[in-house]
Write a structure and sequence with these properties.
The protein has helices at about 5-35, 40-70. By secondary structure, the chain is mainly α. Helix 1 (about 5-35) packs antiparallel against helix 2. It is elongated and about 55 Å long. Keywords: Membrane, Transmembrane, Transmembrane helix. It comes from Lachnospira eligens. This is Holin.
Length: about 70
Amino acid sequence: MKKMSNKTYDVLKWIAMIGLPALITFYGIVGATCHIPYTDAVLTIAGAFDAMMGTMLGISSSRYNKDNNTTEQ
């Protein structure tokens, strides 16, 4: 499996931890205020996507750390 670069990981981590939650919150507030249809469904899907990204990045980080710890010993 091809490993991602540190820069790619950092960008994806920023998106998952800061960018998407901020966007989801903004959309939720605007959607509720302006009565945009299907706001709840969009928020549910976006939240699930963000959780999936966070999980995948956590697994990637764990594997990276495991690989680096076993090669250094």
